[in-house]
Amino acid sequence: xxxxxxxxxxxAGRPVGRYVTRPELPARLSPRPYLHPVTTLAGTAVTxxxxxxxxxxxxxxxxxxxxxxxxxxxxxxxVRDRGPTELDNHGAQRHTAFxxxxxxxxxxxxxxxxxxxxxxxxxxxxxATELADSAWALDFTFSLTNVTSGPLSIGSPATNGRPGAAxxxxxxxxxxxxxxxxxxxxxxxxxxxxxxxCAPWLALAGATWTLIFAGxxxxxxxxxxxxxxxxxxxxxSSLAHAERLPIEPGETAVRRIVTVVADGRLDxxxxxxxxxxxxxx
Length: 281
What we know:
The strands form four sheets. This protein has an eight-stranded antiparallel beta sheet. Strands 4, 5, 12, 13, 17, 18 and 19 form a seven-stranded antiparallel beta sheet that branches. It has a three-stranded antiparallel beta sheet with strand order 1-2-3, with no helix packed on it. By secondary structure, it is mainly beta. Helix content is 7%, strand content 47%.
């Protein structure tokens, strides 16, 4: 790995995340840039990379299982009436350039390519901000532009016939511990209660850490949350929950997620207070 292939995010001078732009990964994992490890200010890792249970989970990034039939998520593809199926349909997100690169963030250009064809062009903006002595925020915006000559759409296993599996979009694979993390939103508690709902924010609380995910735009807040805790800890914002997301030629889909990374197991009031501080009205 050469130095230009990574960027280190820092908060108040402390490293909190390593961003890998050109990972050397097999095609089956849908190679793409990712953040890992991401840590709390005390140094606790809160991401996992290629864990044994899902080797295509790559820390923090953008992953989509169905872009006009191409898999940018990794692993098997859910096929209607067949189930999860090994297909030779994996795409890759290719880092083009950093438009801006500072210790606390960057602006990146990427190309989403499958079968030698560029389907989407992405601009990704990432910024790290200190919130308190024990908490910081990762502000993550991605803009996907259809660069083909025809319409395309984004789907998920849910839109392809698998209920409850509307993953695809921003995704954070969290640290797996002996016990599953607690899950809660402003008015719900538990994985089953929060999964698939729209909420301004939701939290995963592990043994010594808490992650609070917040939609930071009106459009992003309309996307339901994808949540896993018992099987593995992961949170995503669903681009295609009940129906496919169409993107016309030249049009752009934009989403913004702000994640609070905190030391300690926070309760609902403490989580809400940090979200208010992290997300501008």
